[in-house]
Design brief:
Blueprint: H1 13-24, H2 27-36, E1 41-45, H3 57-65, E2 68-71, H4 74-83, E3 90-92, H5 98-110, E4 114-117, H6 130-139, E5 144-147, H7 152-160, E6 167-172, H8 177-187, E7 193-198, H9 203-213, E8 218-223, E9 231-236, H10 237-247, E10 254-258, H11 270-281, H12 286-297, H13 301-318
Helix pairs in contact: 8-9, 9-10, 11-12, 11-13, 12-13
Length: 319
């Protein structure tokens, strides 16, 4: 997921050097350094999702020791490295050239090179072609290791206030409305928090589709996380859709989180559902009645629909 950080670290490269020298005198740092030594193979290194100060010490050490650093956009990665006074050999690895250059990368890894893979921001192999390189390395028994760190989906999930014990990450939803609605329909039965990346331009349309297909659910929009203009907005899907439709397209990187479906009221018996459906059918169509009752009771829509069909059939039979 491409993210361009705007916040540079407050520590100068000279200060970083001094801190490194001071730490190197302690036995504790010696133990850390030994464990962090870059070994031959592929190492995935997480980079900040916005605030450049979030880089890990091990990540900087890996950059210094690597024979090659693979990145999405060399211009973006040079800004990060330049902020820490580092100059390393970079090569682009992205959606458009991955198939072509992957064999050359694997050849170097087989020779024992130490290669680091990063994305423009966050953890590589999440919503980018890095996983294919990792898979190819495993196929050829090439060592793969990681230096973990920031990732937008976990950052957004942990501050969302939505359930974190079970969550589903779906990357970007389809750009076209029909495919997007079908994807949301397929997720209706998941009893977990749904996490998706989204573009600012499509956010309002996606929220409108989600509000219709997943009515009544709580949701959170996390935007520009860790950056100067960070925004975390909470509400129902309908409330968030109304806000972003009125405000117009926002800017920056967006994570959309949708809460799990409400738990059915244990006191909601079939008789109570039928009574609610009867009242709703007197005021509207079958579809509207099913939707309103499912939303009000928290009972699964397909279960309410089955009860509604039985009621309609019974009324028709009585006539």
């Amino acid at each position: 997921m491409r993210k361009t950080g705007k916040n540079s670290p407050k520590t100068s490269s000279c200060a970083n050097t001094a801190a490194t020298q001071a730490l190197s005198k302690s036995p504790e740092h010696g133990q850390i350094k030994a464990k962090s030594r870059l070994v031959p193979g592929l190492t995935l290194v997480a980079t900040p999702i916005g605030n450049l100060g979030d880089i890990a010490t091990r990540a900087l050490a890996a950059f210094a020791e690597a024979d090659l650093v693979l990145c999405e956009d060399t211009r973006v990665s040079k800004k990060l490295l330049g902020a820490y006074g580092m100059s390393v050999r970079l090569a682009s690895y992205h959606d458009h050239n991955a198939e072509r250059i992957r064999p050359r990368i694997l050849s170097r890894l087989r020779r024992g090179d130490r290669i680091v893979l990063i994305s423009d921001a966050g953890t590589p192999a999440i919503a980018d072609p890095g996983y294919k390189l990792v898979s190819a390395c495993h196929d050829e028994q090439i060592a793969v290791s990681t230096i973990p760190g920031p990732t937008a989906l976990i950052a957004a999930l942990t501050i969302s206030g939505l359930p974190t014990d079970r969550f589903y990450f779906g990357g970007f939803l389809p750009a076209k409305a029909g495919a997007r609605r079908a994807a949301l329909e397929a997720l209706k039965s998941l009893v977990s928090t749904l996490v998706h990346y989204e573009t600012p331009r499509r956010l309002a349309a996606t929220l409108a589709d989600a509000a219709e297909i997943l009515p009544g659910r709580s949701a959170v929009v996390g935007r520009e996380l860790t950056k100067l203009h960070e925004e975390v907005r909470r509400g129902t899907l309908a409330e968030l859709q109304a806000h972003y439709a009125a405000a117009g397209p926002c800017r920056g990187e967006v994570v959309l989180l949708i809460g799990p479906p409400a738990k059915p009221d244990p006191a909601m018996t079939e008789t109570a559902i039928d009574d609610a459906l009867t009242a709703a059918l007197d005021c509207g169509t079958l579809r509207d009645a099913v939707q309103s009752v499912a939303r009000a009771t928290g009972v699964a829509r397909n279960q309410v629909y089955r009860r509604a069909l039985r009621l309609v059939d019974k009324v028709s039979g009585d006539v």
